[in-house]
From TrEMBL:
This is DUF305 domain-containing protein. Keywords: Membrane, Transmembrane, Transmembrane helix. It comes from Lutibaculum baratangense AMV1. Residues 94-153 form the DUF305 domain. It holds the Pfam family DUF305. The keyword Zinc does not apply. The chain crosses the membrane at residues 6-27, 39-58, 64-84. The lineage of its organism: Bacteria, Pseudomonadati, Pseudomonadota, Alphaproteobacteria, Hyphomicrobiales.
Length: 287
């Protein structure tokens, strides 16, 4: 067997291993290029080169070239391992592109595992909701940071203070507040319109925003409370704002920037200073 064929075999195996690292993601829209997965594929390819050549030494008689392959594969393995462990080349957007498929795997296993214990099911459902929310937030941040919109500071809650259990139960940590998925039955309690529009962070999850398709009313769920919102603008024309005392939600259709992963952008702001953005899907019509 020729050394060229051996090299092509290792190269093909490395590429196949890179692709296979994505097969357990939950949805196509969660596929992003990952530097870390690239380094891991190269690391595994280098390992395979050493193992396969060791088993097939009888088929390759050039001792000098064999030593060079062993040495080169060892160096590639060590360099790839260092790149994976140090993350020295991984920037903010690269980090998030790697984390989205990672989160997607958690959604897939949490949703499809055959769980019987209600405690484990509750934990799995919480993981699903958290991962989907973070995926939508990372898609928003990838676009923001890639455009150079890097902030210097974010809202932080006051430091912890001594108190009682009653104090703890009455205390709301602003930095942890977030829009919650809102089933249609809950939207019916605060929204009368028959024709509605929704913003979903994921096609598979309940909307976090409901709005009358014709009118100026909308609704969200925040900290277990169904909140009615006033609407300014026309979402289907590009932008709209949903507001209530203390909060504003800004919707922007992505237009030419839209793709199969995302169609719209929603930014949730509280007057205290909290601001969180998501990318997802804004749709009008039957839910």
């Amino acid at each position: 067997m020729s050394y060229v064929r051996f090299g092509l075999m290792i190269l093909t195996s490395t590429m196949v291993m890179f692709v296979l690292m994505y097969v357990n993601t939950y949805a196509w829209e969660h596929l992003f290029f990952s530097e870390t997965r690239t380094y891991m594929a190269i690391l595994m390819g280098a390992s395979m080169a050493v193992i396969m050549l060791a088993y097939m030494l009888g088929m390759y008689s050039n001792k000098g070239l064999n030593v060079a392959i062993f040495a080169g594969a060892t160096i590639v393995f060590a360099l790839s391992l260092w790149l994976v462990r140090s993350q020295v080349t991984v920037s903010g957007p690269s980090y998030m592109r790697a984390m989205i498929p990672h989160h997607s795997i958690a959604v897939m296993t949490s949703e499809r595992s055959q769980i019987r214990d209600p405690r484990v099911r509750k934990l799995a459902d919480e993981i699903i909701e958290a991962q989907r929310r973070e995926i939508a937030e990372m898609q928003y941040l990838i676009a923001e940071v890639s455009k150079g919109n890097v902030v210097e500071s974010i809202y932080k809650d006051p430091p912890a203070a001594p108190g009682t259990v009653e104090d703890a139960l009455a205390n709301t940590l602003i930095a942890k507040l977030d829009l919650a998925p809102m089933p249609e039955a809950e939207a019916d309690q605060v929204l009368d319109a028959a024709e509605r529009c929704t913003f979903n962070r994921s096609p598979e999850s309940d909307p976090v925003l409901w709005a009358a398709q014709k009118g100026d009313t909308a609704a969200m769920k925040l900290n277990g409370i169904l909140v009615s919102l006033d609407v300014t603008g026309e979402p289907e024309e590009g932008t709209a704002e949903f507001s209530a005392p203390g909060t504003t939600l800004s919707l922007r259709m992505l237009g030419e920037d839209a793709d199969w992963r995302q169609k719209a952008e929603l930014v949730f702001k509280l007057d205290q200073g909290l601001s969180v953005g998501y990318r997802g899907f804004y749709r009008c019509g039957p839910t």
